[in-house]
Task: inverse folding
């Protein structure tokens, strides 16, 4: 399975040799650890191996760097306490999630959280419109921004938006709406059903049938129940205490 890594991230990844070593088996030493770029990107920055460690049957490597869009194969060769050699490998896809959803103060679902949830392969399939095998950043960001705007449109009836703290319910709704947007007109029935259920939850939230614990509620506007009568732009109540509106002089001629 391919793993995600950001270019600037120092990722500590664990290679578990338990299945190879058997019960009670341990790693004696790391014989070799190599990195090979797949060559998907023209100008490639190396993915380097930093600190290494052994914990029983597991080996931990710190991976630094890498180029956005490139895939690297990391191979670890170890020697166990019986002198036998064992090898494991893993692929790492470098994706730059340095961007955030545009024009959103408090993202309800980050781009990386979306990809972690849906899986890298599916994220690429839904966003890659030019066929280069990479996540199309602008397309994903737009879908997430639109989904959050939909959510805030409903929540604004009851709550202060954007939400300072994002409940799991809202994260799930944004995710479901964003997936449907990425599918577009080709969305299968299952995706449409999930989107419709998400929209129904939003309607229930707007009606107060579902509440968001911890969310700041809107302060109701103050309404003055005492009517005020204005005559010729003047407060009539003030006139009652002053000059009479009707007198023998003002009624002369009627």
Result:
């Amino acid at each position: 399975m391919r793993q995600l890594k950001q270019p600037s991230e120092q990722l500590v990844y664990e290679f578990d040799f338990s299945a190879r070593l058997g019960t009670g088996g341990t790693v004696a030493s790391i014989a070799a650890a190599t990195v090979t770029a797949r060559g998907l990107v023209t100008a490639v920055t190396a993915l380097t191996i930093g600190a290494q460690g052994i914990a029983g049957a597991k080996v931990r490597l710190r991976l630094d760097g890498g180029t956005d869009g490139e895939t690297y194969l990391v191979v670890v060769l170890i020697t166990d306490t019986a002198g036998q050699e064992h090898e494991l490998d893993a692929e790492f896809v470098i994706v730059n999630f340095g961007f955030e959803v545009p024009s959103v103060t408090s993202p309800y679902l980050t781009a990386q959280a979306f990809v972690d949830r849906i899986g890298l392969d599916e994220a690429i399939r839904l966003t890659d419109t030019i066929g280069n095998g990479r996540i199309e950043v602008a397309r994903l960001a737009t879908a997430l921004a639109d989904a959050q705007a939909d959510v805030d449109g409903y929540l604004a009836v009851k709550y202060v938006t954007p939400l300072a703290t994002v409940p799991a319910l809202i994260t799930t709704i944004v995710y479901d709406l964003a997936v449907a947007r990425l599918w577009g007109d080709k969305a299968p029935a299952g995706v449409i059903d999930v989107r419709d259920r998400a929209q129904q939850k939003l309607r229930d939230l707007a009606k107060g049938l579902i509440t968001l614990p911890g969310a700041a509620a809107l302060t109701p506007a103050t309404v003055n129940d005492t009517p005020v009568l204005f005559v010729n732009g003047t407060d009539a109540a003030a006139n009652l205490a002053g000059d009479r509106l009707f007198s023998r002089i003002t009624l002369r001629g009627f």
Remarks:
- The beta strands are 2-5, 11-16, 27-37, 47-55, 58-65, 71-80, 85-94, 230-231, 234-235.
- The chain has two domains: 2-94, 111-207.
